[in-house]
TrEMBL record:
Organism: Megasphaera elsdenii
InterPro entries, per the entry: Rossmann-like_a/b/a_fold, Universal_stress_UspA, UspA
Family listed: Belongs to the universal stress protein A family.
Gene3D superfamilies documented for this protein: HUPs
PANTHER family according to UniProt: STRESS RESPONSE PROTEIN NHAX (PTHR46268), UNIVERSAL STRESS PROTEIN UP12 (PTHR46268:SF6)
The name this protein goes by in its record: Universal stress protein
Source organism superkingdom: Bacteria
Domain spans labelled UspA: 4-147, 155-299
Annotated Pfam families: Usp
C-alpha cells in the first residue's frame, strides 16, 4: 500500500497556507514523510510594479527581485519553525508563475503529495485559490490536499465518494492509511445520479412505473458492486460504513459530509462515466470550491 514520502507545501504567509502546513505535518507524522516549503514570488506582479514606476533604472527590477527574495527568506524561516524537529524540512524560493513553479518542484523533488491552502493574502489574484489551485489539481500527477480552515487535532471521520472506478479505489486506499494512523472512522458514499444512469442503460426516460423500477434496480446494483469492490480493497480489521444515496453528486457529497461530521473528504480524480465523471470535472471542482472541509484529491 502506497504511503507518502515527500510532501510539498506552497506557502504565501496566509492563514490558509499555515492550515495546509498543519495537514502536511500531521500526515508526515503518520507516514514518516519529509516536507518541502515553497514560496513563489509572482514574476507577473514584479513586472507590473516595474512598469508602473516613473523613475526606473537598470537596477530596479533586480532590486525588486532581491526584495522579494529577502521577504521570502523571512517567511520560509517562520513556516519552517512551525515544523517539529522530528520531521525533515527544506525551504525553496522561486521567482516565476506560482502554478508553474509548484508543478516543476513537485517533479524535481519528486513530491508524492501537495498540500496547499484554498485562500491567499493577495486581494487581486489569489496565489493559492482560483486559477492556481484549479491548475494544480488538474495537472499535478500526485495527490493534492486543499485546506480551508484550521485543523483541529487528528482526523476523526473520513468520507470517500466512490463509483467503483480505479481512481476512487485508489482514493479509498489512501484514506485507509490516514484512518488507521489517526484511528478515524471511514465512510464510503455512492451517489446514484439519475441522469448519468440514463446514459448507460437501455431504460428510456419515461415515467412508466416498471421502467422506473428497472432504473432504480440498475442504480442499486451499481452501488452494491462498488461497495463490494471497496470491501475487497481494505484490511479486514478496519470498520467501513457504506452509504447509498440518489441525487446530484456534488451537493449530496457536501450534505453527507455535514450530516456525518466529516473532517476530511478524499476523492478520486477520474470516474467510470465517460461523459461526465462523478469524481472529476464539475463535481470535483464543486466539492473543492464549496466545501468548508479539507479535500484530498487522489491521482
Amino acid at each position: 500500500m502506497k504511503s507518502y514520502h515527500h510532501i510539498l507545501v506552497p506557502i504565501d504567509g496566509s492563514d490558509y497556507a499555515k492550515q495546509a502546513l498543519q495537514h502536511a505535518i500531521d500526515i508526515a507524522k503518520l507516514t514518516g514523510a519529509s516536507i518541502t516549503l515553497l514560496n513563489v514570488a509572482n514574476m507577473a506582479d514584479i513586472i507590473n510594479q516595474f512598469s508602473q514606476m516613473e523613475n526606473t533604472s537598470e537596477l530596479t527590477i533586480d532590486e525588486l527581485s532581491a526584495t522579494a527574495q529577502a521577504n521570502s527568506t523571512g517567511l520560509l524561516k517562520e513556516f519552517a519553525s512551525l515544523v517539529p524537529t522530528s520531521i525533515p524540512v527544506q525551504s525553496l524560493f522561486e521567482l516565476s508563475a506560482p502554478e508553474v513553479s509548484i508543478l516543476q518542484e513537485q517533479k524535481a523533488l519528486p513530491a508524492d503529495l501537495i498540500c496547499m491552502g484554498r485562500g491567499s493574502k493577495q486581494p487581486l489574484k489569489n496565489f493559492l485559490l482560483g486559477s492556481v489551485s484549479t491548475y494544480v489539481i488538474t495537472h499535478a500527477p500526485c495527490p493534492v490536499l486543499l485546506a480551508h480552515d484550521e485543523k483541529k487535532g487528528p482526523y476523526r471521520h473520513i468520507l470517500v465518494p466512490v463509483d467503483g472506478s480505479e481512481s476512487s479505489l485508489q482514493a479509498l486506499k489512501q484514506a485507509e492509511i490516514l484512518a488507521k494512523g489517526d484511528q478515524a472512522s471511514l465512510t464510503v458514499l455512492y451517489v446514484a445520479s439519475i441522469s448519468d444512469s440514463l446514459h448507460d442503460t437501455a431504460v428510456p426516460n419515461t415515467m412508466e412505473p416498471h421502467k422506473l423500477q428497472e432504473l432504480a434496480a440498475h442504480m442499486r446494483s451499481k452501488g452494491h458492486n462498488a461497495f463490494l469492490l471497496c470491501q475487497e480493497q481494505l484490511s479486514s480489521d478496519l470498520p467501513l460504513q457504506c452509504l447509498y444515496k440518489i441525487g446530484s453528486p456534488g451537493p449530496v457529497i457536501l450534505q453527507t459530509a455535514a450530516d456525518i461530521d466529516t473532517d476530511l473528504i478524499v476523492m478520486g480524480s477520474r470516474g467510470l462515466n465517460r461523459i461526465q465523471s462523478v469524481l472529476l470535472g464539475s463535481v470535483g471542482r464543486y466539492v473543492a470550491s464549496h466545501s468548508g472541509l479539507p479535500v484530498l484529491i487522489i491521482r
